[in-house]
Amino acid sequence: MNDLPTSTITRRCLLQNSAVGFGYLALSALLQGETREALGAPTTELAHLPARAKRVIFLFMKGGPSHVDTFDYKPRLQQDDGKPLPFDKPRVQFAPTGNLLGSPWKFRQYGQDGMHVSDLFPHVARHVDDLCFLHSVHGTNPSHGGALLKLHTGSDNFIRPSLGSWVNYGLGSENDNLPGFVTICPTFAHGGAKNWGSAFLPAEFQGIPLGVASQPSTAANVKYIDNPRWSKDVQRLQLDLLNSMNREHMAHAQSEPSLEARIQSFELAYRMQSRMPEAQDLSQETANTIEMYGLNDPITKDFGRQCLLARRFAERGVRFIQVTHSDTKVQWDQHGDLKAGHTKNAAEVDRPIGALLEDLKRRGLLEDTLVLWGGEFGRTPTCQGSGANGRDHNPEGFTMWMAGGGVKPGYRHGTTDEYGYYAQENKMHVHDLHATLLHLMGLDHQRLTYRHAGRDFRLTDVHGNVHHEILA
Questions:
Q1: pLDDT digits (tens, 9 = 90+) for 164-182
Q2: What is the average per-residue pLDDT within 134-149?
Q3: What's phi and psi for 23, nearest 5 deg?
Q4: Which SUPFAM superfamilies does this entry report, sorted A to Z (predicted)?
């Protein structure tokens, strides 16, 4: 140790030259698996199931849309409007609620099997024969922060990799020039970047945010995508030099997953300079497509642009695309004035979502694109607010739906009770939802793991069952 300059000694050097090198050997063994995973080794090892879907588009309705006012028709709730709930409410509630509140919207029947959809979603209703309704989803947290993290990461109290990061880690992007995970207009509230972050997974698997929920989607662009100071050739020379320096460091430092991830991020950023602007260039779309998504209507233009971008990213091989409908007021969170709030919200998203489903189908993309719609929880069938015209958070039972990507079309899975409070039949916990989504993508949720802090972690932790009943 005497010949080592103390001013430049590293931890690896210390371990290598002390205790006869045993510490260094142990460190190398621990890092070996991480390095292989950071370099993409899991892709061929874990994607061993027959994949029904190649990519995911997650339409996230932040705040908690009311299932009993949208897709979960409850005649008994209408009949008993104003009466007390005839059974106990959950022991843990977000806030007190009163008597039953019937839906102010009519439900009509659509499709071959006469599925009920409320008047809030007439455009989506035309596609019920392509939808797989999940009426028995339930979670564990009645607050926005915990519920958002649970839905996005599988944990409501720890920092864990997001769903999109796990999919990106397991499968990677189909397009080497675009990120594997893009989140359009995400919210920075209630967990913020943790909902699309990679946590302890290598940084290259985290989501790339485009814009923010509090700003128009026209501002949803990648920052610093253009470098006006240097030409592409000069930038390539800079990257090559930086690459050689990093590789030389890695040759001495042995396994270094974080450095490898940094190298890959530099390379991806360079390639994205030409591909990302093209992917976001809506001038290539026809006038009919622009009209179909509602970009000419001030009510639908913002979310319509997000949905159209999602389709463009999907057809270019981005593996996981999230589209968030939110604003600074927690959008779907109607504790009072339910009718006005949900009417406004649905009007903004119904037409664009219907257009997305139609567009994916006519382009042949719906077959291998899994579309997921929903919020972090539903709403109570009991009333809330000074005017008794709102609903509280309800994680005990709510509705999400899937389309395409190998799920049964025109199918209803699970039920809530006759008022819509508790999941009842074929209950699907959030862990089950994640396990099923990964299965559709060709990933076994029990084998999609990453070793961190001395143990193997997975999205579903020690839970989760695949609901094979919804598979086509």
A1: 999 999 998 888 889 999 9
A2: 97
A3: -60, -40
A4: Alkaline phosphatase-like
